[in-house]
Design goal:
Blueprint: E1 2-6, H1 9-26, E2 31-34, H2 38-54, E3 62-65, E4 67-69, H3 80-87, E5 99-100, H4 109-122, E6 128-131, E7 153-156, H5 159-164, H6 166-169, E8 178-181, H7 184-188, E9 192-197, H8 203-211, E10 229-234, H9 244-253
Parallel strand pairs: 1-10, 2-3, 2-6, 3-5, 6-9, 9-10
Antiparallel strand pairs: 4-8, 7-8
């Protein structure tokens, strides 16, 4: 795991977008794993700008989103399909049939989950996965006690997550109780992943996820087992980390970061 600390949310999102863009330029057929949430909005707006102004080309890429709510239609304002259309899909040249999200309206959720895993496999696996982190430490919707080897499945949301996402649905009572999410094992199988977290409300959970013991109570700690994981935080989200001087030194001195400094 590598931790990169940037001064503010804008710079953290900018680095994330530039890393995605670099992968896409070196491999136009990239299989890109996508995440939702407020933190990612800045990343998508930078990618859209790169597409419009620098010709960043998504036409050959395939995307797989981490998760989707169960029981709400794709055009519902709270659905992740709708989020992706608004923030990315409608503004870049991704081929719509290669933008995959679990289908929360599927009649047989178990089959849908199995097929989602098969689809990822058939595309050769995910090359680069971007991740946010929930206050409960979830990645995707892998709530506490998600098995480290779990695959795509239906998961019940915790009260904390429901509260966190209530504003989009107009109140807690309207938030779906269930979601389909890639499993922790699915995420650990990605070739490379980037976790982005910004703001002081993420400082506690980032310290636990990065420097704490691995536990299924905090799914993001599983990323410590990932062979190629980069954690990008701003100063505020880094506030509770112990080894910030070490992380900063590496970013300033490691050759592979030179083009991003
Ligand atoms: C939702 C998503 C997660 C995301 C989290 C953080 O719960 N399922 O994948 O990481 O939100 O959201 P935010 O960036 O708004 O804090």
């Amino acid at each position: 795991m590598e931790v990169v600390i940037r001064e503010n949310p804008r710079q953290a999102a900018d680095l994330t977008a530039r890393l995605v863009a670099r992968e896409l330029r070196s491999n136009p057929h990239l299989v890109l794993g996508l995440a939702t949430g407020r933190t990612m909005e800045a990343v998508y707006s930078i990618l859209v700008r790169m597409h419009q102004e620098e010709g960043l080309d998504f036409s050959q890429a395939t995307t797989f989103n981490l998760d989707e709510y169960v029981g709400i239609p794709p055009d519902h304002p709270g659905s992740y399909r709708r989020y992706m259309e608004e923030h990315l899909f409608n503004h870049v040249n991704l081929e719509p049939r290669r933008t995959y999200l679990p289908r929360g309206m599927a009649t047989d959720i178990e089959t849908e989950c199995r097929q989602y895993e098969a689809m990822i496999r058939n595309h050769g696996g995910i090359d680069l996965q971007i991740l946010g982190i929930g206050r409960s430490g979830h990645v995707g919707f892998n709530e506490p006690l998600s098995a480290m080897r779990s695959r795509t499945r239906e998961k019940a949301l915790t009260p904390e997550t429901i509260e966190q996402n209530a504003s989009v649905f107009g109140g807690k009572a309207k938030v779906p109780r269930w979601a389909i999410t890639m499993g922790v094992g699915t995420i650990l199988d990605t070739r490379e992943c980037i976790l982005l977290a910004t703001g002081e409300e993420k400082a506690d959970i980032i310290a636990k996820a990065v420097e704490g013991p691995i536990t299924s109570m905090i799914s993001a700690t599983a990323l410590q087992l990932h062979p190629h994981c980069i954690v990008i935080v701003d100063d505020a989200a880094a506030a509770r980390l112990q080894h910030t001087d070490y992380y900063r030194w590496i970013f300033e001195n490691e050759r592979h970061w030179a083009e991003f400094r």
